[in-house]
Amino acid sequence: MDMSIRPVPRGKLVAIGGAEDKTSDTEILRQVLALSQTSEPVVGVITTASSIPEDVFSDYRQVFERLGAGEVLDVRIRERADAAASAMLDMLSRSDVIFISGGDQMRLTSILGASDALGMIRRRYDEGAVIAGTSAGAACQSTTMVYGGHATDSLRKGAVKMSAGFGLIEGVIIDTHFLERGRFSRLMEVGATNPEYLGVGLGEDAAVLFENDNIYAFGPGHVILVDSSAITSSNVFDLSDGEAVSVHNVIMHALVDGNGYSFTDRRVLGPKELGTGSLEQRNAYT
């Protein structure tokens, strides 16, 4: 089965593990703006997932303006009706960078799913915009997303809940706050039931860029990849919900800034093979 990342849009897709630095080096957010390759990019901030949208928008407006954004737009979509409002669609259409904040990812998918706003996000991605999200705003990017499952005992059949995401990328499942909240078992259970999905576990202050069937890690934190495509056996199909899952030969990789991964070849790419070290260096050559 060909599970390569497709289709190939002109834009950039960035997933951030949450709790990214907003006050000192702001390395990840700086790179998000740089990926737009625009001197004063317009940034649209979607705070749908958050229960405190005013505070969240204020924080991101300050950091993006400090980093050189020309304009920071408050895409305040709180209800389904807002996702069809012309004012919201206009802001999204003008955005060089669309940034989706953290919070409750089920709010994101229930409010934005099948909406004109989500259609505009996909359109802007196809046209060349940067689509970036943190925490819930990252987890929702895949076709299928994880939205529940206790970290301490997720290796039980049915413990991890999955639902439809935004469909910006296929073939992966994205989990966030991954190391800090001990979510290894969540992606292992996902892999036992869906071996075709590559698990992408994003630590806090860590990010990935999905581009041209490659994954590029950047930021100070760790990116953990959980590859279940070569599992030799699992008992998951024999179990009832709640019973303990066994899965063998799961492959894991820990990536840091400057590492990459070939999705089609299922192998890690080091700085030498990538040709440049960090994402910042790669951007300087584009």
Rg over CA atoms, rounded to whole Å, is 18 Å
Which strand order does the major sheet show? 3-2-4-5-1-10-11-16-17
User: How would a crystallographer describe the biggest sheet?
Assistant: 9 strands, mixed
The parts where pLDDT drops under 50 for at least 5 residues are 1-7
- Helix content range: 25-40%
Count of distinct strands: 17
Percentage of β-strand residues: 25-35%
Mean pLDDT: 93
Order of helices and strands: EHEHEHEHHEHEEEHEEEEEEEEEHH
Tally the helices: what do you get? 9
- Name the overall outline: globular
Structural classification? alpha/beta
End-to-end C-alpha gap: 32 Å
Structure, explained:
- This protein has nine helices and 17 strands.
- The strands form four sheets. A nine-stranded mixed beta sheet has the order 3-2-4-5-1-10-11-16-17, sandwiched between helices.
- Strand 8, helix 7 and strand 9 form a beta-alpha-beta unit.
- The N terminus is likely disordered.
Give the tags.
single chain; 286 residues; alpha/beta; 4-stranded mixed sheet; 9 helices
Chart the SSEs and their pairings.
Blueprint: E1 12-16, H1 27-34, E2 42-46, H2 53-66, E3 71-75, H3 86-94, E4 97-100, H4 105-112, H5 116-127, E5 130-134, H6 136-139, E6 144-148, E7 161-164, E8 172-175, H7 184-193, E9 198-202, E10 207-211, E11 214-218, E12 223-227, E13 233-234, E14 247-248, E15 251-255, E16 260-262, E17 267-269, H8 271-274, H9 279-284
Parallel strand pairs: 1-5, 2-3, 2-4, 4-5, 8-9
Antiparallel strand pairs: 1-10, 6-7, 9-12, 10-11, 11-16, 12-15, 13-14, 16-17
